[in-house]
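Known limitations

Files may contain more than one protein. Parsers should not assume a single record per file. Below, a two-record file is shown to illustrate correct handling: read the sequence, read the token line, then continue until end of file.
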Amino acid sequence: MSDAPRGRGLSVRRATIEDAEALAEMAQGLNAHQGDPVSSFSPAAARRDGFGEAPCWTALIAERDGRPVGYAMFHAAYDAPHAARGLYLQDLFVNDGERRQGVGRALMTAVAREARQAGCIFFWWTAKQWNTEALAFYRKLGAMADTVVAHALFGEAFDQLIDGDTTAVIPPPPARHGSGAGSDGQKARSAPRTRPRTRAR
């Protein structure tokens, strides 16, 4: 997917495995801004998780005259109440010298186009309350804001939930051929497999 140039040599395209180093460099800049581990997202991690046998995410790169100036990272999402497919925006980053130059809007537009081409009708993201610049940008896009409390389990808490549960795991009953339903006749609803926040700068 390639977006049309947007003045002064700006364009947006799908990232490839050759972009792993550029993605890692920009992601580490975003990590530092967010207070996340700077060294975790390496070029090797980008190649493994974005371009391996089972990619976890898709990335778009914004370029000005062939030079990377920002990126967006997203993956699949689902809204069960509306039975609708969508995308979850994980990261949005624009280099310092390129802000307020249309790069962020070009990336958001490109993500929306990716969503439409994939048969989705929405994409969503979260932002930290202290990131007032990002919040103002999203308001200008016409994004709806909702008050939620995001939760996540990482590290020790994640392991403790799994290892500390002694409840016997009962296998589900065999699926009825062609029914797609459980034993009570109701279809199961899968929770969106998303990290509950978007990192933006």
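...continuing to the second record:
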Amino acid sequence: MRVHVADHPLVAHKLTALRDEGTDSPTFRRLADELVTLLAYEATRDVRVVPIRVRTPVGPATGVRLSSPKPLVVPILRAGLGMLEGMMRLLPTAEVGFLGMVRDETTLTATT
């Protein structure tokens, strides 16, 4: 499994505030939403794009758009549901799927 560590100072700052036991529920939810948006930015770094030409007020330009198929966002139920909105903010046309998992409390192994 490929792991990427998001070591950005803003991520660390928000994560620290989120983990603080003195953080109230509304602030926790706001911080979680902000963190998801920052992490989604990192997670989509290698998303596939295709070049396109566009017209701008100053003339034609080359840009990119997301290639097909559309990205798929799959939150793992239930904890992942809180991350869905932040992901969809960055990828509003993404398809959405859901994955249910259960953990064996003895072995701590997760299964679908």
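Parsers that stop after the first record will miss the second one. For reference, the second record is described as follows. DSSP finds three helices and eight strands in the chain.
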